[in-house]
Structures are given as C-alpha cells and as structure tokens.
From TrEMBL:
<dbReference type="InterPro" id="IPR035899">
    <property type="entry name" value="DBL_dom_sf"/>
</dbReference>
<dbReference type="GO" id="GO:0008270">
    <property type="term" value="F:zinc ion binding"/>
</dbReference>
<dbReference type="GO" id="GO:0005085">
    <property type="term" value="F:guanyl-nucleotide exchange factor activity"/>
</dbReference>
<keyword id="KW-0206">Cytoskeleton</keyword>
<keyword id="KW-0677">Repeat</keyword>
<dbReference type="Pfam" id="PF22697">
    <property type="entry name" value="SOS1_NGEF_PH"/>
</dbReference>
<feature type="domain" description="DH">
    <location>
        <begin position="5"/>
        <end position="193"/>
    </location>
</feature>
<keyword id="KW-0863">Zinc-finger</keyword>
<dbReference type="GO" id="GO:0005856">
    <property type="term" value="C:cytoskeleton"/>
</dbReference>
<dbReference type="InterPro" id="IPR051092">
    <property type="entry name" value="FYVE_RhoGEF_PH"/>
</dbReference>
<keyword id="KW-0479">Metal-binding</keyword>
<dbReference type="InterPro" id="IPR000219">
    <property type="entry name" value="DH_dom"/>
</dbReference>
<keyword id="KW-0597">Phosphoprotein</keyword>
<keyword id="KW-0862">Zinc</keyword>
<dbReference type="GO" id="GO:0046847">
    <property type="term" value="P:filopodium assembly"/>
</dbReference>
<dbReference type="InterPro" id="IPR001849">
    <property type="entry name" value="PH_domain"/>
</dbReference>
<dbReference type="Pfam" id="PF00621">
    <property type="entry name" value="RhoGEF"/>
</dbReference>
Amino acid sequence: MQEPEEKKIALELLETEQAYVNRLHLLDQVFYTELMKEAKTGKTVPEEVVKMIFSNISSIYQFHAEFFLPELQKRMEDWNRNPRIGDVIQKLAPFLKMYGEYVKNFDKAVELITAWSEKSPPFQELIADIQKRKVCANLTLQHHMLEPVQRIPRYELLLKDYVRKLPPQSPDRGDAEKALEMIFMVAKHSNAAIAEMERLQNLWVVYQRLGLEDDIVDPSNELIKEGPIQKISTRSNSTSEKYLFLFNNMLLYCVPKVIQVGAEFQVHLRMDVEGMKVRELKDTEFPHTFLVSGKQRTLELQAR
C-alpha cells in the first residue's frame, strides 16, 4: 500500500529533526563543552568569548533533544491510530522565539571565531582538531553553526507542504493550520531580529564615519537618508560642498574632512527634527534650492 503523502512529509520532519538534534549535540556537547573546558584553563580564550560565540545554543539543544524530538517520535510510532502532528508543533512554536537571540548573535559569533583564531593559535588548533573528527563530516564550525539559523524556515516549508497534502476531512487540519500560522509568526520574529541587527550595524558604521561623541550614539536613532548637498552662501553668492545625515530625531549638517584619518566628516551643526520646517525656493540662479529652518538656525541648501 502507498503511504499517504502527509505521512511522508511527517516522516521527513522526524528524520530531519533527528539529524538536527545530532548537529545541536555536536555544537553544544562537543564544540562548546570542549572549548569551554580549555578556556577555563586560561590557555586559549577567555570564557566570556566562548559564551558569546555559542549564545543560547544549550537551551536550544535541550529543548529539541528532550522535548520536541521525543514528542515527534511518539507521534510517528502511533501514526496509524492517531495520524496527527499539528498539536505537537503548536507546543513547539512559542519556544522557537529562543532562536531570535541566536540568530541576532550569529554574525558577531562568526567574527569572534575569526578574530580569536588569529589571536590564539591554541584556540584555532582545538577547533581544527574537532573539525577533523568523523562526526563533523569535513565541515567547519561556522557551517554547523548556520544550521539553527536555517531551521525555522525549514519547519515552515515542511509544514506548508504538510497542510497542502492533508485530505480536507483530516482530523489534523485545524491544528496543522494553526501550527503553520504560529511558525510563520516566529519566522517573522526571527527575521525582525536579523533586520534589527542590520539596522544597528549600519548605525554603528555611520557613527564611526562621523567620529561622534557619545551623546549622539543612541541605538534608538534611525538613519533615514544621507547624501551630499550644496550650501548656498548669500553673502558671496557661491556654493560649497556639504553632507547631510537625516535621522528620525535630528539633522546633522556636516563638512567632509580633507584628510580622512579616523572620521570621514565633521559635524558642524545638529538640528532637531521637532519643529523643523522645509520650504522650497524658486531661485533662477540656483535651481533645486530649499530652506531648512529649525530651532538652531536656518540653512539655504541646493540639491543636485
């Protein structure tokens, strides 16, 4: 007899979960445990660095190994009597929010591995030794670490497929559809974590280009637009090259530095966005000009 399509997908979910738990075991019980043991001797890297690299991998491993995989196994053994997995996945979904932290930390973790491999040969050697083992299948630590990042999208795809193949009258339809919705929300949560991380990284790059004092470096700021602009001097009837950074709360009016050591720009003026007015000017001599007036002062600017 041909197995029903939905059972094949449920079995694929179980098989990939088994392989995934093995990968998590390798990350948590082998890499993390052994690197931590060495860090405690003080010969390779600080313990803090190892913790930062592996983030919350231990919680993720325990959850999948001790809860989700055993539940799935029980379900598949009992499939003929009770063909359903939707309710188990519903129980899983809220715990997947743990991935937000891991995903957000991923780029930083990879950077730390690279930096400390250069700084500490014993650290690099230990990783290389573990990577030579059969269980690593010739793959690097970074490659194994990518697996949790890719796991939630994989659940989403498998579950979409499962729901599509379920017969209309299946007892699992309601639960499976609800589970899919929950997984979709978690995937969105995970993507939001990545977007937030990218936003903060971009912000930090801008701060470095500006060589800023701490009072401007605020993680809640949002860069909206940046670009070159001409400042019109009414006195001399000429223009000079300036540069603007528009944030959600302030406009930074900058001068490009001639000698670019350290910061790229010097901030000449900060204007609060609150109460700021922008007015277009009809000037035949200087087209595309506008006035920006704020609490601090008024600027006459010309766009390209």
